[in-house]
Amino acid sequence: MRCRAGALSLFTVLLPLLLVAQLACSNKSDLDQALDAHATADHATDAGHAEHDGIAWFEGDVDEAFALAKQENKPLFLYWGAVWCPPCHYLKTKVFTRPEFVAQSRAFIPVYLDGDTERAQILGERYQTTGYPTVILFNPAGQEMTRLLSTLPVDRYREVLDHAMARMRPIKEILADVVDTGPGAADPIDLNLLAFYSWGQDQAGDSVANAATG
């Protein structure tokens, strides 16, 4: 059972960030400049991937996918879903099929886990997933950079992924830095990553918040 005090601490930390992030969203010049500086070149599909709906989903073991991400110095995009899940269907038909998302997917290693398989359930425990769909972006070192909300508007998906790839930092480090400096002094990209992080799907969310707030 999750700690009530930890949840209250997390809410106290994130509430001002949500408000500041909305203001930060309007400051496109700073965000665009940072994203342009961290733009990732497209890479051709290799033999370790399979084409479905334009996305080169990785074929093979998840650990092999993380090893490839480290070798190629690319993030890993983990999609944990199920065939019968309506929100998963929304992602597959409304987000994953968009040409801009397909193009963006060449910047990371995309991995699909069917949550109904036994192995996926074991991996679900490893990555502390709590429902379908769960979408996590890891940096090449295997550290979680963001966990995307299932209710995230379509147009926000690319933005959040771009922000995470621009930073390449674990979300817990970003949260700790923002708590330390205060939202007013924080980078707009960091505020947006925190505002659109799926804290409700992260079983480790309380520990992250407690570590950040001391």
What can you tell me about this protein's structure?
The protein is α+β, with helices and mostly antiparallel strands and 214 residues long. It has a single domain (11-35, 46-213), classed as 3-Layer(aba) Sandwich (Glutaredoxin), CATH 3.40.30.10. It contains ten helices and six strands; from the N terminus they run ααββαβααβαββαααα. The radius of gyration is 17 Å and the shape is globular.
Structural category is alpha+beta
H/E series:
HHEEHEHHEHEEHHHH
Fraction of residues in H or I helices: 40-55%
What is the CATH C-level name? Answer: Alpha Beta
The count of helical stretches stands at 10
Q: What would you call the quaternary organization? A: single chain
CATH topology: Glutaredoxin
Average predicted local confidence, pLDDT = 77
CATH architecture level-2 label: 3-Layer(aba) Sandwich
How many domains? The number is 1
- Number of E strands: 6
Distance between the termini: 21 Å
Low-confidence stretches: 1-13, 15-52
Give the neighbour order of strands across the main sheet. 4-3-5-6
Radius of gyration: 17 Å
The name of the CATH superfamily reads Glutaredoxin
